[in-house]
Amino acid sequence: TLNRETFIGQVEVFGPDGGLCYIHAGPGVGLCEPQGFCVFGNLCFVAATYNHCVVIFQWTTGVHVSTVGQLGPSFFSPKIDVDAFGRWDVPGNSEPCFFDEPYAVAARGDTLVVAERRGDRVQLFRFPHGFWGERELLQVIRPEVVLGHPRAFGVCFDDDGYLWCLAGWGVLGVFARVE
Known about the structure:
Shape: globular
Order of helices and strands: EEEEEEEEEEEEEEHEEE
Number of strands: 17
Oligomer: single chain
Radius of gyration: 16 Å
Low-confidence stretches: 74-89
Strand content: over 45%
Helix content: under 10%
Mean pLDDT: 78
Largest sheet: 4 strands, antiparallel
């Protein structure tokens, strides 16, 4: 859910009976404008878009596992500029293994895929020791080069391990298979 006055979101997990089991609000400042999420095993991956990070927690218990990327600054930071369209202009980080407005996530095995809205790229990572440990950058995909549109709005894996990417104008692409 998202508080429309503060843009701080939280993940609410409900049980089979429809009752609320717990709420996960994210580390520190919370999940600022969360856009995408996925579940793999007992882990939930949430793209905290304006925190420029992906928050990983156990959806079965609500326990925080890890934060990938750089938590903050959010647009509630004191030194924030407003762009020509009246939006908060909070810089992300364009370096590998960091994000500029992560928007969509997918996970399979020890691999995490993150699509960035403002970063105009899709990053693939491998976590050889689990999602709480070190990560290796496997590949950076530029949707504009491959799909003809700079932004990827959705990513997922199919049952055979192929990465699918939805870019602007409804362009759907299939990328390399992830074992």
